[in-house]
Amino acid sequence: MIEALGDRVFYLATFLLLGIGTYMMIGNDNLVKKVIGMNIFQTGIFLFFIASAFVDGASPPLLSAAGPYVSPLPHVLILTAIVVGVSLTAVALGLIVRIYDEYGTLNEETIQKVMGDE
Amino acid sequence: MTGLLEAALLVFVLSCAVAAAALRDVLAAVIAFSAYSLGIAIIWVLFRAPDVGLTEAAVGAGIMTILFLVTIAKTVRPSIEKTFEGVDGRALVVSVALVAALSTTVFALPAVGDGGSAVATDDVTNYYLDNAYEETEVKKRRDGRARGLPRIRHAGRGGRRLRRRCEFARRASKGGV
Fold first, then answer.
1. In chain A, where are the structural domains located?
2. To the nearest whole angstrom, how far is the Cα of B17 from the nearest Cα of chain A?
């Protein structure tokens, strides 16, 4: 069982990263740290995909390398997902700057209190 | 494929993520996150995904850090009394439950590096490997040599051998071998 777990330690790391990301999104009060948590959650899923593509002893899917190759399909998906993640982060941070202009704070509880008062 | 290097990188990445979650100072959390991105980029290279590694290093560790820093500069970096955040019980319960639920699937997954796994043997994977070079219509040089293969200047005995290997690689890339 320990051996089987050793073969799958990257999946376990994926799940831990998902847990850390979830904790940051729920538990941290600062909005910027929530966005960092979202990014860690994303990267956890990337790790799952890239680990599933790996084949022992295979070379990267490059023209100049000899086969066998690792599966290039998850790489393509994750390449797109990284770019989408950056756009998502940029939009979220743009909203955060607007929220700060409006409320003068980035603390979630304070913002909710101000919204409740209005 | 879990050697010492992989284990050390995993520990580094996980501890950077925990540091980003636990540090109260936002700037410190951003720095921990960019160290995390760099570690993850090295893991991509170890997993034979150099393209993803390059993107992650440029975008995750580079642009993302700049975006966060600009946001902190435009808003506020709250003053801190304590170094670490307190533990939020509600969030801890949710995330531990999530990790526990996901961990029950771990033995149902194929081992990392298993050549017979569904991803490695999938039709789409093999279609990409067989046809991507032709279907992307990568232009070849006028001399018919594919781009990316080494150019031979001196045709000695070693040069001929190298040329033969290039010829082989080119035919292999066309699917002729």
1. 2-117
2. 7
Q: What is the pLDDT of residues A59-91, one digit of tens each?
A: 888 878 887 889 999 999 999 999 999 999 999
Architecture of the CATH domain A2-117: Orthogonal Bundle (1.10)
Residues linked to residue A30 through DSSP beta bridges, in sequence order: A107
The alpha carbon of residue A61 is apart from the nearest alpha carbon of chain B, in Å, by 8
Across the interface, whether the CB atoms of B49 and A71 are under 8 A apart is answered: no
Measured in whole angstroms, the distance separating CA A109 from the mean position of its chain's CA atoms is 25
With contacts defined as CB-CB under 8 Å, which chain A residues touch B92? 23, 27
Q: Which CATH number fits domain B4-85: 3.40.630.30, 1.20.120.1200, 1.10.472.10, 1.10.10.10?
A: 1.20.120.1200
Residues 6+ apart with CB under 8 A from A17: A40, A41, A43, A44, A47, B13, B14, B17
Instruction: State pLDDT tens for residues A85-99.
Output: 999 999 999 999 999
Q: Which residue in A40, A75, A83 is closest to B20 by CB distance?
A: A40
Residues of chain B with pLDDT below 50 are: 177
